Amino acid sequence: MKTNRIGSSDLYVTEIGFGCMSLSGKDKENERIIHEAIDKGVNYFDTADLYEFGANEESVGKALRGKRENVILASKGGNEWGEGIDGWRWNPSKEHLKKAVKKSLQRLGTDYLDLYQLHGGTIEDPIDETIEAFEELVQEGTIRYYGISSIRPNVIKEYLSRSNIVSVMMQYSLLDRRPEEWFSLLKENDVSVIARGPVAKGLLTSRYNDKVSEKGYLSYERDELIKTIRKLEQIAEEKDMPLNEVALRYVLSAETVACTVPGASDSSQLKKNLLASKQADLTGRTIEELQEVTKLSYYENHRK
Description:
Helices cover 38% and strands 16% of the residues. The chain is α/β, with parallel strands linked by helices. Helix 1 crosses helix 2 and helix 2 crosses helix 3.
């Protein structure tokens, strides 16, 4: 499978990675699908401490025993839970992040992370303190590189100007093209996008009829959404490609995108995701056709 470099790092990740949030709560099943992904060439696995309050990391760690050196492992932190906390709360402090990453390492059964990401963020955060935590973790060898997982333009701009992030994880698909506005700025700063949600919660698959809700999706009202998906499906049929593969190839057509991390809870889903890696890059004309029937929307909030 093709690999791409994440930003200015020396991390070369497979263009289709594995989003671990989709894993079940059963360790044996998770081990089987993770091993299958590795056997089929996937080298990038992305989890977070908040997923199932640490249980996801634990399951991923068990599955990667004996295979850690074959993968690029990423996790996220910044959400705190525990005694005296109702649910969880946002805490990007240096003290919390340095404790949180060590707990993640214990759960994952490793002594370092290839990529550690801030799992959110607001412009009111103590950003310099957060960056200091990341930089110290790099110096200690606890993490190799760091990035953020955020869709807030004001937060992204602050980290681009003040830190050494190599990546920004953003929700990105044909039905959510908001990140495209920021691709040129990210490229100028040698920062890559890790794209989550490339098939828009299953809307960009053959099962979209089961996924459409009365609320629609983002700025698409229900009827508009159905019409748009059908137009995309028609383009996919003309290219003799399944809709989900067109959706993945579109996301990967952006030079700023290093990889995408679709989820998979069973072998069938994994195979469907990975078939997109065997497809040729979309032509410029096909990309134009896909853009003509979808919206180029923008993040209206958190811009300043």
